[in-house]
């Protein structure tokens, strides 16, 4: 989690806008509600628009806000790519914070699972998208803006980015699975999938 200085012009007092950053950065004994924390982190953290300067996927250049969406995870505000829509990911939407996830015109969110794949038939434009190929040319390429001079505080003692590669159905576990990217350098990440299948008869076994 990173809170930016220019988004943190607070005055001492009891207001949430003061108590939340102090709680996050100086470990003040204040615990805001999930709704309060989500709203304030969206306001005070680096936005996806500022973080992502250029995005290319499948050999096509996109507006980064068409591919990435903000979400609150265990380390604060993150920008997710090709993740399932909340409607398909969560079973009880009333218990989740609403991030107002938007899509480009004509793009429709669809369901997907590792076992069943996509629904049939698919619309012309949909999310999450299929990969059209492998390698640097057809993979995901992004340019990130670290805004180091704007840091007010961070959940770690470093400057840069954390990247987690996960199943679109899952919520990323940033502290345990994220890779660290240093600012000012070019980084390449290659994914080598491993496919494993279990016998369908296992579904008939009793859980007791």
From TrEMBL:
Domain of life: Eukaryota
Protein name: Pickpocket protein 28-like
Membrane topology label: Multi-pass membrane protein
Membrane keyword on record: yes
Subcellular location: Membrane
Signal peptide: none
Primary localization: membrane
Biological classification of the source: Eukaryota, Metazoa, Ecdysozoa, Arthropoda, Hexapoda
InterPro entries in alphabetical order: ENaC
This protein's UniProt keywords: Ion channel, Ion transport, Membrane, Sodium, Sodium channel, Sodium transport, Transmembrane, Transmembrane helix, Transport
Family statement drawn from the similarity comment of this UniProt entry: Belongs to the amiloride-sensitive sodium channel (TC 1.A.6) family.
């Amino acid at each position: 989690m990173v809170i930016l200085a220019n988004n943190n012009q607070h005055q001492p007092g009891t207001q949430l806008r003061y108590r939340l950053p102090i709680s996050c950065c100086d470990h003040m004994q204040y615990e805001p509600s999930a709704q309060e924390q989500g709203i304030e982190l969206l306001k005070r953290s680096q936005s996806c628009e500022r973080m992502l300067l250029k995005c290319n996927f499948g050999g096509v250049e996109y507006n980064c806000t068409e591919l990435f969406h903000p979400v609150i995870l265990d380390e604060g505000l993150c920008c997710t790519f090709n993740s399932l829509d909340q409607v398909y990911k969560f079973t009880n939407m009333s218990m989740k914070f609403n991030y107002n996830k938007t899509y480009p015109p004509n793009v429709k969110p669809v369901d997907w699972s590792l076992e069943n794949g996509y629904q049939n038939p698919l619309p012309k434009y949909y999310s999450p998208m299929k990969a059209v190929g492998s390698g640097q040319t057809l993979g995901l390429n992004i340019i990130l803006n670290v805004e180091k001079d704007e840091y007010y505080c961070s959940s770690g003692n470093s400057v840069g980015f954390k990247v987690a590669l996960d199943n679109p159905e899952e919520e990323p576990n940033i502290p345990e699975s994220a890779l660290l990217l240093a600012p000012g350098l070019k980084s390449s990440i290659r994914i080598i999938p491993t496919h494993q299948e279990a016998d369908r008869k296992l579904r008939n076994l009793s859980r007791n």
